[in-house]
Amino acid sequence: MKLWPEARLSILIYHRVLARADPLFPAEVDGAVFERQVRLLKRFFNVIPLGEAAQKLGSASLPRRAACITFDDGYADNEKVALPILQRHGLSACFFIATGYLNGGQMWNDSVIECVRHAPGAELDLAACGLGRFPVGDAGLKYKTICQILGKLKYMQFERREALVAQMRALLHSPARQELMMTGEQVCTLHRAGMEIGAHTVHHPILATMSDRAARADIGNGKQELESLIGAPVRLFAYPNGKPGQDYGRRHAEMVKDLGFDAAVATHWGAAHYGSDLFQLPRFTPWDRGRLRFLLRLQRNLLKPAP
Length: 307
Hints:
six-stranded mixed beta sheet, alpha/beta
């Protein structure tokens, strides 16, 4: 087996690129880490736009060690921090935007994070929300509490989850962080800079928990809103949460295809190859900070063909 198989496509997922390290999430990528990873990608891989990669997969003409960079959700630091780094290195990325959170919105998971981050005292009492009590005496305990609460809420029915998070925010007097998500103008800045803009629904629901009608509407409306914003077609899609068979199903892939997308990405690990389903392309998150571990993670993922 070759060390770097040639006809494979590695697609990396990022969410945030912080301006500075967050003590509550020490493993989160910041600008310095992202720049080191970008340098390694540029040196060892052929980084190409995702739309081009999908076309080359379909025509069996991928370059050697092809790779793509993608971002999910639409965080403002993608434009403020990640974009200048990408531009310095002459690389492209695809930014998948959940349009319902542009211009001052906040996703439910970030609301939970901020509630726990600023919780006073040693215990967070969410019994009134039906969630129980949690220790929050230090950053480590707060991190564990955040993971526990997110796990409890993630697969709830969308409206119920939104109501619970709103109740939590009201109980703890936790306002939304207005600067957390992109503005419409920041999305346009990315587009004008030559970055790809992809759809990620409007409200970032787990599609498998919705009716087919509601799922199709959220997918299609997100596409239309982005096309209206940037004045160009949006041909790429990312499934929210993205685990095949759990967060979305084959019927959702058919919806995406019917709505006029050219390709879609999921979150199962592996590298795409000729014959891979263009509407269920695998992606992975490169957690490792060290240079050698980062490259080994890329190699390990590259050697794992997509199902």
